[in-house]
Design a protein that fits this description.
147 residues; alpha+beta; four-stranded mixed β-sheet; two-stranded antiparallel ribbon; 3 helices; 8 strands
Length: 147
């Protein structure tokens, strides 16, 4: 696995800074120009969801403070909450040491999952069974406005 020399500076002291333009050029995107983004509630630490971003969605998120992803199924920008009203406001964006994954600390309005649950990680694997460990907060049928 190749490492990102821009981000992997083990001797960099806390508080050191790098130019965003330089780091952005070295992000490790997949063959489709995407990078995984994990959304985490900023105050509780709850992991809410994982989605994909491209450079355009990342730039928009950083510029506006409202989280925007890339929808692989729709092949377009997906502004979280544009249909459901369940928006994510960006508190802070972080990169992992390899520059191949984003962590978005967000303030989530309502449920993050399209199933109406607070987060997308509601299926717990126990031995040979998968248990649903949280109930929907909102009926998914009423979560999305029809245009």
């Amino acid at each position: 696995m190749s490492h990102n020399p821009i981000l992997q500076n083990e001797t960099a002291p806390q508080g050191a800074s790098l130019a965003w333009a330089e780091v952005r050029r070295h992000l490790k995107l997949d063959e489709h120009g995407l990078i995984p983004a994990i959304a985490q509630q900023h105050d509780s630490g709850e992991v809410l969801m994982m989605a994909w971003m491209n450079l355009e969605s990342l730039d928009e998120t950083l510029r506006t403070g409202r989280v925007c992803y890339w929808s692989r199924s729709r092949q377009r920008l997906w502004r979280k909450g544009e249909e459901s009203g369940q928006v994510q406001q960006l508190i802070e964006a972080r990169l992992d040491c390899d520059g191949d994954t984003l962590l978005l600390l967000v303030d989530q309005t309502g449920p993050a999952c399209h199933t109406g649950r607070r987060n997308c990680f509601y299926n717990a694997i126990h031995d040979d069974q998968v248990e649903v460990i949280s109930a929907a907060l909102i009926d998914p049928a009423t979560l999305y406005r029809k245009s």
